[in-house]
Design a protein that fits this description.
Layout (H helix, E strand, L loop, with lengths): L3 H17 L3 H5 L2 E8 L6 E3 L1 H14 E12 L4 E12 L4 E14 L2 E8 L3
Parallel strand pairs: 1-6
Antiparallel strand pairs: 1-2, 3-4, 4-5, 5-6
Length: about 120
């Protein structure tokens, strides 16, 4: 049995930790050059690390989101569904959302290739 899912889960743990610490460089280092990332609060997608950087910088100037992975479900084709507890506050600290959501990651060559937001089963 391959330990590939374990390596991918470790990678995703590091990505969530970097996001929550607002360490953009550490998070982007875990992504491929052609990463596709959802603009969760705006709609559509951004492509590539610099577009992700611009989107997160904009997002963090408007809201304060914290995402904690709760469970990892490896799927076929290098995908992993992550059950996430997400708390979003405005900049004054008022809770705007406190919910569980799904993040489906595609991981290739130990890098995050893409993420999409999905409903949990």
């Amino acid at each position: 049995m391959s330990n590939q899912p374990a390596l991918e889960i470790e990678l995703l743990h590091a990505a969530y930790a970097a996001f929550n610490a607002r360490d953009i460089d550490a998070a982007l280092a875990l992504m491929s050059a052609d990463v596709v990332w959802p603009r969760a609060f705006k709609g559509g997608f951004v492509r590539g690390p610099e577009e992700v950087r611009a989107y997160w910088t904009e997002q963090w100037s408007e809201i304060d989101g914290h995402v904690e992975p709760v469970a990892f479900h490896p799927e076929s084709g290098g995908r992993i569904l992550v059950e996430v507890h997400q708390v979003v506050r405005d900049l004054a600290g008022t809770v705007l959302a406190d919910e569980r959501v799904g993040h489906r990651f595609t991981v290739e060559h130990r890098l995050i290739q893409g993420m999409e937001i999905c409903s949990l089963p």
